[in-house]
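Researcher: I'd like a candidate sequence for this fold, 141 residues long. If you have to choose between options at a position, lean toward the conservative one.
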């Protein structure tokens, strides 16, 4: 759904109207899954959250695996129209987009410690780090 039904150069997932999200849900999910009427709104919301994340990840993967390497994604992903791909490349391959990417890379590099607090919470983690017994795990790649 995220790859084939949502426009590649949409500014953000929130640009879709509520009715467009419901239409996507009704056409793509509802034929395969049945929901009680009182649960349909909740199911639609949760599925749209997953679709939004998938859509953002897909765009990120296209940028990393194709645009940054100078490749054409329409060869592998035949559902992407050539004109949409050209617009997407222009959107992601300009100085403004590269500056934003560099900014967020620098922010990400500041994350030295694992983000999980475990059961100790903030105070417990602070005590462990002060004693020098904290284990810093590597970031996800």
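Model: Candidate sequence:
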């Amino acid at each position: 759904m995220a790859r084939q039904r949502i426009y590649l150069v949409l500014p953000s997932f929130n640009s879709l109207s509520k009715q467009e999200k419901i239409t996507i849900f009704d056409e793509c999910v509802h034929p395969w899954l049945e929901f009680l009427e009182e649960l349909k709104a909740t199911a639609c919301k949760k599925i749209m959250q997953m679709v939004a994340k998938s859509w953002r990840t897909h765009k990120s993967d296209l940028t990393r695996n194709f645009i940054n390497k100078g490749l054409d994604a329409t060869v592998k992903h035949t559902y992407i129209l050539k004109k949409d791909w050209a617009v997407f490349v222009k959107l992601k391959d300009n100085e403004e987009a590269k500056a934003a990417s560099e900014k967020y890379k620098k922010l990400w590099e500041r994350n030295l410690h694992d983000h999980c607090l475990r059961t100790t919470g903030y105070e417990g983690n602070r005590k462990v780090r002060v004693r020098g017994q904290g284990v810093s795990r590597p970031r996800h790649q």
